[in-house]
Amino acid sequence: xxxxxxxxxxxxxxxxxxxxxxxxxxxxxxEYVGRMGPERVTASDIKTEATIEKxxxxxxxxxxxxxxxxxxxxxxxxxxxxxxxxxxxxxxHGAYPSTLQYQGFPKSLCTSLNxxxxxxxxxxxxxxxxxxxxxxxxxxxxxxxGDTNRMFLIGEVDQAARDLVTHTKIAMERGIRAVxxxxxxxxxxxxxxxxxxxxxxxxxxxxxxxxxxxxFHSGLIIPHYDAAPLYNDVMEEGMxxxxxxxxxxxxxxxxxxxxxxTVVTADGSRSAQFEHTIVVRADGAEVLTLP
Length: 291
Ligand code: MF3
Ligand code: CO
Ligand code: CO
Prior knowledge:
- A hairpin with a 2-residue loop joins strand 14 (276-281) and strand 15.
- The model has no long low-confidence stretch (mean pLDDT 98).
- The protein is globular, with a radius of gyration of 18 Å.
- The strands form 5 sheets. Strands 1, 2, 4 and 5 form a 4-stranded antiparallel β-sheet that branches. A 3-stranded antiparallel β-sheet has the order 3-12-11, with no helix packed on it. Strands 6-10-13 form a 3-stranded antiparallel β-sheet, covered by helices on one side.
- With 291 residues, it is of the alpha+beta class.
- The protein contains 4 helices and 15 strands.
- One cobalt (II) ion (CO) is lined by residues 147, 210, 242, 244, 275.
- One cobalt (II) ion (CO) binds at residues 147, 210, 242, 244, 275.
C-alpha cells in the first residue's frame, strides 16, 4: 500500500476520563488490585477440569458483556458509556472487571477505536459513523479470569475496514484450528501470519496471546506471527491461553500514547482484533469464552 488507509474521521486524541467506577465489596478482587507491579499468582498453564469449568463461567460473563454492549452501540455514544454498560453487567453477575486497576489501568474494559491496536482507555471520545471499535472484556469470577474481545462496526463502514474486520476474525479462527497437543505454540502464529499476508495486512508482534486462568497474564506467550524457533512451548491437553491477533491496514509498527496504555499504529492505519480464551483438548481447541 502506498497511501495510508486512515479512518475518515482522522487521527484520534485522548478524551477525558470519568471518575473511577466502584465495585461492591462483596465481589472478590484479583490480588493485583490496589498495587502496581507484576502479578504474584503462580499456577500451571495446564488446568484441572474444575478450573477449566470456572474459566468457562468467567468467560461466559465476558462474552455476554460483549453481547450486551453490541446491542447498545450506536453513533453518538462515548467509549465511557460502553465502559459503564460493561462494568454494570459484570458486577451484576458477581464478576470483577479484571482490567480495573490492573497495573493502574483506570477502566473496566478496553475500547480500541480505528488506529488504536489495543489497550484503549474508555473516555469522552464519541463514536462516529464509519468507526471500527474493538471492545476487550476480561471477567474475574471464582478466582479465575476469562478474556475475550471482538470488533463492532459503527454505522456504515468503508469496504477496506469491513474486510479487515472479517479477515481478522477468520485469522483468529484459523489460529484456533491450529491448536493440537504436541505442536509448538508458534504454529498458531505461523498460520495467522500466513493468512494475513494474503491481504497485505500488518501483523502486530509486540502484543501477544497469553496463558490465562488464576493469573490474568500467566507468562506463557502466544505469538501471532511466525516466531519459530522462538516460542516453542509445546501445547498439552488442559493448557489454557488466549489467541488474539491484531492485524492492520498499514504498518504493524506501533507506538504508545503518553497515557502509558493506548497503543496505536505508527502510521495511523486502522487495526482490528478478535480474542478467545481456549483450552487444548485431545482433538483441538475448545473455546471457553462463548456466551
Ligand atoms: N484484555 C487484554 C488482553 O487481552 C489486556 C488488557 S490489560 C489492560 O490481554 F490493562 F490494558 F486493561
Ligand atoms: Co488477552
Ligand atoms: Co483481552
